Amino acid sequence: MAQAVVATTEHGAVAPADAHGTHATNTGVSNAKLGIWLFLSSEALFFGAFIATYFLYRGRDAQFLKGPKPSDMFNIPFTSVTSFILLMSSLTMVLALAAIQRGDHRQLRVWLLATALFGLTFIGGQLFEFTEFYRGGLKLSTNMFGTTFFVLTGIHGAHVTMGIVWLLVLWGRSSGGHLPQAKSEAVEIAGLYWHFVDIVWIFIFTAIYLIPQH
Amino acid sequence: MTTVEDAHALVLAPERRIRILERPRRTTGVWSWFTTVDHKKIGILYGSTAILFFMAGGIEALFIRLQLARPNGTVLSAARYNEFFTMHGTTMVFLLGMPIAAAIGNYFVPLMIGARDVAFPRLNMLGYWIFLFGGLFLYSSFFLGGAPDGGWFGYAPLTSTPLSQGFLPGRGPDFWAVGLIMLGIGSVATAVNFLVTILNMRAPGMTMMRLPVFVWMMLVVAFLTLFAMPSVTAALIQVFMDRNFHTNFFNAAAGGDPLMYQHLFWIFGHPEVYILILPGMGIVSEILPVFSRKPLFGYAIVVFSGIAIGFLGWGVWAHHMFASGLGPVAVSAFSLSTMLIAIPTGVKIFNWLGTVWGGQVRLATPMLFALGFIAQFTIGGLSGVMHSIVPSDTQQTDTYFVVAHFHYVLFGGLVFAVFGGLHYWHPKIFGRMLNERIGKTTFWLMVIGFNLTFFPMHFLGFEGQPRRTYTYPKGMGWDTLNLLSTIGAFIIAVSVLTYLVNVIYTTKRGPIASRDPWDARTLEWSTPSPPPEYNFLHTPIVTHRDEWWHRKYTEDDEGRLVRLPAGAAVAMDEPADEPDADAHGIHMPSPSYWPMVFALALPTLGYGFVFKNWWILAAGATLGLFAISALAIEPPTEPEPEPAQRELVAATGEVH
Known about the structure:
The complex is a heterodimer.
Chain A: H1 31-58, H2 61-64, H3 70-73, H4 76-101, H5 105-135, H6 144-175, H7 184-210
Helix pairs in contact in A: 1-6, 1-7, 4-5, 4-7, 5-6, 6-7
Chain B: H1 4-16, H2 32-35, H3 39-68, H4 78-113, H5 121-140, H6 172-200, H7 213-245, H8 258-292, H9 299-312, H10 328-356, H11 365-388, H12 390-396, H13 400-430, H14 436-462, H15 479-509, H16 547-552, E1 553-555, E2 561-563, H17 594-610, H18 614-633, H19 643-652
Antiparallel strand pairs in B: 1-2
């Protein structure tokens, strides 16, 4: 029983062989990892629905671009930098996982914090951009671009924010000595979520900023 | 060696940790039902709650029928009627259909695959609490500014137009959108749990092609739920944003497209139909072989037909939109795909008939319900094929013919299968047999009541009576059939009451059920009735499909059934006679408060959104963050007490 066996050891102690719950499962993938993959597949369709909504309205220029034009408001270099920072946070996430897998808890905490900080920078950039657009006259109700843009990127931002909270909880657990090497899968699963949110941003960034708005 | 003092220190150790809520340990008593992570208790909670909501939705239906019993009825106002048919549909789909499958699945999937619990016990409990609180949240709208009144499908822009200029003046659509988002979160959690449990936790030898068909159907349903819910969640968020924050998703004047709502809703809505009916098909596929004393005819074909229905179910959604002007190409394509999905469904019906054919049929109550399912589901399936023909569908759209069709599928199909399942598994769950005479009364009353209610609706539809309309004038020729339909509805109500009487009556008076009262085929019947908390003393080693049957029977040289000597069948596992002989070695997941606390955060956030109150929102967010952190930090299973400590505990009775 995978569920019945749980690592009760703290730092340094050797956990039971099936602490990850891997050895008892039929697929060979641990329950938690299979669970997060399935959850992410559902999330992919959730974002898919909003991206599809964006593209459906995008071609309808008269109503889509009524009022302030997105092309006038975009600050592509700025958004590219914050996007780059978000993508780099995937690298620090990988480094965090590598650190806990080799038992380096100090490095784990450094990279977890770095990842959260990069995520926060991205969110800060998004809030700045929202404010700028709002001051420039683009609101939820202004046109179809305002409607689809704010809701799609806002929902993505909410996902990043939840990821940041998750990373900080892991950091707190590790600082308190409650995240032993044997539980590295907890970091791996948070990482899967984090990478997923990053990949979704690549699609959103391409759809909104890179495809020309006529 | 551990001394008594050491052991005592160990016992006290957890209490030194600072906790806001000490971890619950009791697995008996009333309070344990709030903290349990046992899949069987959660199954009972799901089932009893779903039946309560079933009665609420049924009472709404009775009011609808009273209103329509006579022309120019005055029982309900038009506004109240809108609330009642909306809440009736929403209740029956989200608060009966999906949770009752989760109830039976929760209780029996682990038992059928030879597991001791589901993959994520606390997530399981969380799913239940979200369902309960989501349902109460929806129903609280009756007292907080008006219940949902835009139909269970909630078409935009009717539901999405802002309150200030709204067609729907109350808070109903807000409660509806937020409530369904909440229930969707619970459903996805439950779906992930079922998927991981079935894919990962099967007993040794329980290969996929040895899984009971019910488990297969729950697997397909879980995939459908996982992929259908996001679409409707997106649509509901957009409706809520339009209504409350002045976005324009469905506002045609600003360039929004109401058709997009219909697409997003029905991309969810049609798979939802299969989410509702496939568990029923699974239940029937379990009952028929047992009461025919034959294996299921064409197991592999039934399984693959179920998977085929699951796949094709994604390609038929627009047949709900034939009247919306999609254009001839799209309409023809969806017409064809709809005809196509009738094939695997028809295949299953023939498999069920083939199972009964030539069997030693026992007409016990579960079997009656299963046979009723086949007959009535076939009628509903045939009127469904009629809808695939576009001109015919255009004629029938929004008439009572459609109401007749989907009630034949969902009531004549799903509800009959569920009642069959409830009668079939009752002895396993409660350890008492239901009364057969009352059970048969329930069945016959339900068959008569159901057909009397819904068969006339076919004719009413052809004669043009529109759905969702609170009254009709005299002289339309609809009077008699409507009155018959109303009488039928009350007969259904009586049949449901007889079932409840049966359950209450047999709690004390029913004969004690043996572990296998029906001479059944699947693993759940190898455990005592009711099963112990850990299900199986030893994890079963599976060598056959219908494993339990093969442990009881073998065939002689001429292919006749021969019962194995008594005792051989249960040799692997006999905890009933020696209670807890070895059960100490089995370490089950520990109870927890946090699923309930986290689930409480969701309706709190919901009220915050509906009333746009930042304080309530902040309270909900804080509660949610706090509870989910606690869930993450708390280990699913508390460390096993050391042997010496266990003796001490046994002596002082502290932990148990």
